[in-house]
Structure formats: structure tokens, C-alpha cells
Amino acid sequence: MNLVRLDLNLLVSLDVLLQERSVTNAAAKLGLSQPAVSAQLARLRRHFQDELLARMGNQYRLTPLALQLKDQVRITLGGVERIFAAEPGFDPSSSTREFSMLVSDYSVAVLGSRIGAILAAEAPGCRLRLTASTPRLIDIVEQVLVSTDLVLMPRGFLDNLSYRDLYRDEWVCLVSADNVEVGDALTVRQLETMPWVATYYSPTASTPAARHMRMLGIEPHVQVVTEHFLTVPSLVAGTGRVALYQQLLVDLIPETLRVRALPCPFPAGPLLEAMWWHPLHDEDPEHRYLREVVVRAVADLALPANI
């Protein structure tokens, strides 16, 4: 496709239209008249040979193609913004750059406050944007990393990307403190019969320990699924459920929840946390600075070595 013949400004309008699902709201957000945005939508419909926004009663719904384009357009625009925001030299003390990271609430709980503190002291004009990781975003992570600086997640999910190891964590099992069926230790048989709280439970997304457990032939009876690690203790407390949990998060559990952390009755293996980025950012001085900030945050917190 000849990009010279395309009006790339339409990408901005397409992004807002897909986010707002309304010509009126999109026009207000873009600072354009409603007829002007309607004309842009007509051009986009002709280009894609698709309605993109289909009227359903008094509302517009995204067509299947529009749903497919929604994330791709946002990622593409993010990459364009990075290109035009590039600076010949990077001075964190005067920069107004936005750094972005795809993270779980586990990563935020462990590292977020320290990373934020370092940036506030050294790069007060910069902004840190934390986006929650989801199975859908991890499935397209190479595209996401064109416009997102870093992904923080354990080894075992990603490859063909630049990365650096950060720290090591261990897995434990959480049970309710008043679960009289569980003594001082769990058995494999109990893991097979107890109801589970699972995190990121899908064919393409799961914790490394959960995947290893299933490889050993232990099939959990999953009763609740959550994509937020910090909600796991409350979903276990007062029930007969069990869950895998990171040791570094155990000390953050409120005492009022009354849960117990027990050793896993199978070789769960360690959690090896790493940061990942697109290779095209290897030599970017701004990106290199952010990576150094994350490494320093790990050192400041004296987290276990990732070995």
C-alpha cells in the first residue's frame, strides 16, 4: 500500500471514533464539527469497505472489523507519538516524556512505589503510565511493545524479545485460616479435590506454577478466576478454596482476612520476574534510562536475586 496516498490524520479520527462510538462525542473530543467528522467516517468506511460503526437503535456498535482495529489503531498511534517525541539527547531532569509499562497488580505492589519515587526525584516532569496486563494484550505483546516501553512478567511466557532478569520469588498455597480440613500441610490429593481460585486461567495465560502443576497431572477444580493477584486472599478467606500465591505478597495481606500460606506439596519452581521490551528500543537513551530505574528499584528493595 502506498502510504503517500493515505491521509494518516484519519488514524487519529479512527481511534477517537472507535473509542467514543459516537460521531458527536468524537467531534467534541477532536475539536471538529460534526459534519467534518461524519465526512471522515465516510472516507474510512469507503477505505475499509465496512461500516465500522453500525447503528443499533439509538446507539452505535462496533462491527467485527472495528473491534479488530480498535487496539491496533491505538498501538500504532502510540508508536507514531514515540517517533515524534524522540529527543537528540535525554535529560531526565528536564524531560516531559511519558513512560509506559504493561504490568500486573503483583508487579505494581512489589516495585511500583519505588519506581515512582525514583522518577519523581530524578524526572519530575515525566509521567509513568501503568497499564494492566490481560491475556488479550499478552497475546499481541510484540505489537503492544511498539508503543509500550516495558512489560513486567515472569519468564516462561515471552520469547524473541529483549529482556533483563529482575528478581526471584517463590510460590505458596493460600487457604483460609478457619479451613479445618487443612492441617499444617497440604497434600496433592487435597489440591485435586479442593475448589480453586485461579489467576489468568486460560489456554494462553496462566501463572508458571499453575502450568507446572497441570504438567504434573494435577488438574485443579477452578471455581473462581481473577486477573488481579491482590484480590486472591479475599476470595480464599472464609471458604474451602485454595490458591497459588507469590511469597512476596504474603506480607501485604491484611491480618483481618485470616488466611494461611502453606508450602506447595509439589515442586512449583521459582517465579523468575523479568522486564521485556521490543529490540528496536535497545539503544534508545530514554528507554535505557527507564530500564536502569527499574533495576535500581529492585536493588533498593533488596529483592531476592533472580538465579
Task: Note down, in words, how this protein is organized.
The structure is a single chain. The chain is of the alpha/beta class and 307 residues long. It is 41% helix and 22% strand. The strands form four sheets. It has a five-stranded mixed sheet with strand order 4-3-5-12-6. It has a three-stranded antiparallel sheet with strand order 10-7-11. It is globular and about 70 Å long.
- Spans where pLDDT lies below 50 across 5 or more residues: none
Terminal residue distance: 47 Å
Mean pLDDT: 89
Cα radius of gyration in angstroms: 23 Å
Helix-strand topology string: HHHEEHEHEHHEEEHEHEHEHEEH
Main β-sheet description: 5 strands, mixed
Structural class given helices, strands, pairing? alpha/beta
Strand order of the largest sheet: 4-3-5-12-6
Helix coverage percent: 40-55%
Tell me the β content. Answer: 15-25%
* Tally of DSSP helical segments: 12
- Outline type: globular
- Per DSSP E runs of 2 or more residues, the count of β-strands stands at 12
In short:
By secondary structure, the chain is of the alpha/beta class. It is 41% helix and 22% strand. Helix 1 crosses helix 3 (34-48) and helix 5 (105-122) packs across helix 12 (285-300).
What are the key terms here?
307 residues, single chain, 3-stranded antiparallel β-sheet, 22% strand, 41% helix, 12 helices, alpha/beta
